[in-house]
Amino acid sequence: MTTPSLAPKIQSEMEVDLIAVGSGMGASCAALAAQAQGLETVILEKSDRFGGGTTYSYGIVWVGDNHLEKSLGIEDSREDAYNYLHHLAAGHELESNLRAYIDTSPEALRFFCDDVGIPFYVVPGFPDYFQGMAPGSLGEGRNLQVRPFEAKSLGAWQEHLRAAPAVTHRATFEEVASWGGRARPQNWDRQLIRERMEKDIRTFGAGLIGHLMSAVLRRNIPFHLETQVQSLVLEDGRVRGVIAKQGRNEIRIMARRGVVLATGSNIRNESLTRRFSEMHATESLLPPSVDGDSVVMAGEIGAAISVKPMFQQDLLYVIPGEEHYGVPLYRGVTNNESGFPHSILVNLDGNRFADESIGQQVGATLRNFDIRRHRYV
Fold it and tell me: Is residue 3 scored above 50 in pLDDT?
């Protein structure tokens, strides 16, 4: 691994094959795949930490008919995987994209396991979310996670890896399940959690992005933090590069093969959220750097923007005074407390309005608008 510089400088004019904007799973995987094909690649991240929204995620990768489940004797097929995702999309999918994912994700997974060295494995006993309710669902095998990652292995780069605030990002899914789940924190192995915190061993999305950052460093793929891409360079109707800012310096980076925009959600961008979401809520579990840059830049050059129904919305709360990276530390309810035994959610009238055990249904029901009283739920 190379020794980091706090603010590595980029030439004011340079050219590479591929530019990956962002530093989460999307940008990291794009850069790793491009580099493996002999392409000169650079990663540009506007914040001072590597990882983006991936850090805060559960870190689960869903791949149907994959080689890891086959090695365990689990039977699956691409047709079943397709039927499952097709059902979940409820008619809002792009057929070509769905088919491409089903057909190529097993190959991509094998590449990242065997060639890149990302230690994915099947989460034991973890079924498809709608197992038994959706056609093509499977009881185990498609949900994958990585082995715990020791952040200290990054050396001087450790402090530049984004950290997640949740204690759950120190345990694996099967460990949490064996302790009785998040509803029984009193049964958790506190000694193990304490040891992993002391050693900075990370799991879930924090572990996944740690392994990806390590792979980027091992392959000497250059990445630049505190480098904000501000616009795309358009020539003859094609994207040819980006204009970025690093400190006070403006940089023009050209891309011979393309630009990958992978900056995540736009929920923190008030203007975009008001335009694309009827709820107009800008509170987010994600870091403040994830605020819709890709959507803005793509829209500026006339790219088509696809707006999908917001099946997944969460109820959030914040404990006064708690912050993370300078913004209020929000916590999700619909995948945590509301699904615990003996918990119910009620609306302003004191009436229960959803099945709390299915977070997606809670999110969908939040969008129900009472036309007589002009309010939601």
Answer: no
CA distance 369 to 322: 32
Considering only CA atoms, which of 334, 293, 361 is closest in space to residue 53? Answer: 293
Q: At what angle do helices 25-36 and 204-218 cross, to 10 degrees?
A: 30
Contacts of 169 (CB under 8 A, 6+ apart): 202, 203, 204, 205, 206, 207
- Please list the residues that pair with 238 across neighbouring strands: 235
Q: How confident is the model at residue 311 (pLDDT cuts 50, 70, 90)?
A: low
CA proximity to 365, closest of 340, 347, 342: 347
Contact 141, 134 (CB under 8 A): no
pLDDT tens digits for range 102-117: 999 999 999 999 999 9
Question: Is the pLDDT confidence value at 376 over 90?
Answer: no
What is the C-alpha separation between 306 and 246, in angstroms, rounded? 30
pLDDT at 269: 78
176 close to 59: Cβ distance less than 8 angstroms: no
